[in-house]
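Hi,

I'm pasting everything inline rather than attaching a file, because the server keeps stripping attachments. The sequence lines come first, and each chain or strand is labelled.
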Amino acid sequence: MRQVVTETMVRVEDVHKSYGTGAAAVHALRGVSFEVPRGELVALKGRSGSGKTTLLNIVGGLDAPDRGRVRVDGSDLADLDENGLLALRRDHIGFVFQSFGLIPILTAAENVGVPLRLRRADPREREERVELLLSLVGLADHAAQRPGELSGGQQQRVALARALANHPSLLIADEPTGQLDAETGHAVMELLRAVVRSEHVTALVATHDTTLLDLADRVLELSDGGIVEH
Ligand SMILES: Nc1ncnc2c1ncn2[C@@H]1O[C@H](COP(=O)(O)OP(=O)(O)OP(=O)(O)O)[C@@H](O)[C@H]1O
Ligand SMILES: [Mg+2]
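And the predicted assembly:
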């Protein structure tokens, strides 16, 4: 990946995305443009079906737009082939999903270490990073527990630690508190706000959670396939 230090972490220009064709086509995104400055925590809101997941998948290189351009950390995603996109996702982006996505048979510590194993990080470096991240998310005492032995909020904190394992420049989270009760959700969002600062990452988070909407540096709203800025 080309290493260009830019002050803009994400630049989305006139992105369009439709599903299906003809009369049955759904125009999920109709000309979306916005920027996420480096170091900011940007919340993305919008009613169900407004295109939040579609947009996050496109920014994260999991899906391609029909039209428009997306730049992440200085790279134009259209210039990257499958391997390039894979490397971008593995080395530069951390993902957090609503359903946590942890591996059930691995302990919390092993789950956090997965991205480091994929990168073939030195085992000692891996252990140190895992320990630090579990402390950061308040789970140092739960390292040996499997996801099924952790509460929902704890599982999402493990997922957040895993997303940060490779020092990503961009954290993408899709309704990370969608499966949590309000109080647990608030705690996870406050943690997210804190780690964005302490780990110097940039974050783009789809959410309805009012805690995060209040804590975010900026709130973008998707409506009718376009962005309304607050
Ligand atoms: N794979 C797909 N095939 C067809 N239509 C799709 C597909 N994925 C999404 N859509 C449609 O695109 C629109 C945007 O969906 P998207 O999942 O991006 O919304 P969302 O804002 O994330 O909603 P939610 O808040 O419910 O998660 C919806 O109308 C949806 O039905
Ligand atoms: Mg969604």
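The pocket of adenosine-5'-triphosphate (ligand 1) is lined by residues 19-20, 26, 28, 46, 48-54 (CB under 6 Å).

If the labels don't parse on your end, tell me and I'll reformat.
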